[in-house]
């Protein structure tokens, strides 16, 4: 039986967080990485502490949604991504039915060291008593076998494609998916050509921000289908199942504001690509026990701005805080791609696309609740009215 530890003190295996920590999941992620690099422990979310002692419940109103969102965040933000036995998130209720979350952490020695990924960098922490500290270089460094590792092979392939675009120096929004095992796409199949001509066949909006170029036929180039060179958004479908969408940065431009990213194309382009992937991978081996590696990049966006919330929201036109710009000469890229179970990729493509976009909002310093509500969190679907 899981007893909520009221009256207990924080220790080398116990950490308490109030429910507001769910709005800043990196604060939870830090603690979990610390326990993974030490001997394991428990993080309780929804407990108020004073001087390190849990004194009262701070109940979580929608624990099921909070649990799902935290699980997704940890899968995306921890390196290596946690296995089921390493990090478990559960809902615990008291006698009155009030809910808190318990994160059970049990590291696997051979997978250390663990890191938190944030803003394109790795952060290594370790639990020391009831405190968290950064790991030293000596603690971090250890040989790690990577030979025969499919993840390393997929990541290096994605990185090579991204590096090519960065060397060109053109402003683009890039999304790329790489399945493992390979999906083996017949690029001569008329059905595949049809997906690139009719948005409705993949569940996308006919007039939305997607990969469709109805007046341009897909062309075969060295084992891949290519379309969209004339319209500034190039879709490529490779024989091994790799999909990429490269969009001219000006396709994201808000029509009334200079160098400002419109949130709808920012969200809809990757969701459209994930929906295409769902159709292409459905009958492939990857949809069973396989994985899909997904990466994105915003290249050449120095001084481009992103506004939080939906364009249909009053908060969009009258923000409560200054508009945030990308004030870095470096492109917006990440150290490693996200990894999705193939089954989830096929069954919930919108949710996978949302998690990719969430990285961008986090990089600009926004919270998840500032991402437009056209992405329905309850149904996990993107719904933008025509």
Whole-number radius of gyration?
A: 22 Å
Tell me the number of helical segments per DSSP (H or I, 4 or more residues long).
9
Helix content: 25-40%
Mean pLDDT score? 90
How many domains would you count in the coordinates? 2
The residue ranges in which pLDDT falls below 50 over 5 or more consecutive positions are 143-148
Strand order of the largest sheet: 13-14-15-16-12-18-21
The total count of strands amounts to: 23
Shape: globular
Query: Structural class per helix/strand content?
Result: alpha+beta
The share of residues in extended strands comes to: 25-35%
Largest sheet: 7 strands, antiparallel
Distance between the termini: 51 Å
Could you characterize what this model shows?
This protein is of the alpha+beta class and 386 residues long. It folds into two domains: 14-140, 2-Layer Sandwich (Methyltransferase, Cobalt-precorrin-4 Transmethylase, Domain 2); 150-382, no CATH class. Helix content is 26%, strand content 26%. It has helices at residues 25-36, 63-77, 137-140, 150-168, 190-195, 263-281, 314-317, 342-347, 349-363; strands at residues 14-17, 41-45, 47-50, 53-57, 78-79, 87-93, 99-105, 115-118, 121-123, 125-128, 131-134, 172-180, 219-220, 224-227, 233-238, 243-248, 260-261, 291-299, 305-306, 324-325, 338-341, 375-376, 381-382. Helix 6 runs antiparallel to helix 9. It is globular.
